[in-house]
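Exercise: predict the structure of this protein bound to copper (II) ion.
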Amino acid sequence: MSFAFICRLLAGTALTLATLVASAHSYKLGSIDIGHPNARPTVAGQTMGGGFMTLVNAGAADRLLSATTAVAASVQIHSMTMDGNVMKMRQLDALELPAGQTVELKPGALHLMLVGLKAPLKAGDTFPMTLKFEKAGEVVVTVNIEQPEAAKAEPDHDHMHMH
Ligand SMILES: [Cu+2]
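Solution:
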């Protein structure tokens, strides 16, 4: 085992720990818990990005009415469904948050669509986003820009299964 290899292992461990600490963030607004707001990194020229989080509503039914952020011209609430074998995104007027339920915004499902990105979203960066709920009111959350969980946990995953 070379010295350089050990260095890489140690660096990798430190990075993983830092990522775990940074990613454990959540917000509480009335009876609504907003878990780990995050977005995917984007490349130059890409004008849209996905925003994700977990919304736990411990109280009466509420709705997420809108989201706004300075990094994009607008933020839309999208659902994603399969139409045959074609994924279709549909814009919703609001996101229903039924009483006592958890609504997950995640890739391939419900998500916030950042439309008209003003600059690429860089992994490791964060940006503020304002969420407006019908009953709970408004809150500003910090959105972490990060690679998907699978890619983070197993950086060599694709490589290992290539042969
Ligand atoms: Cu979308």
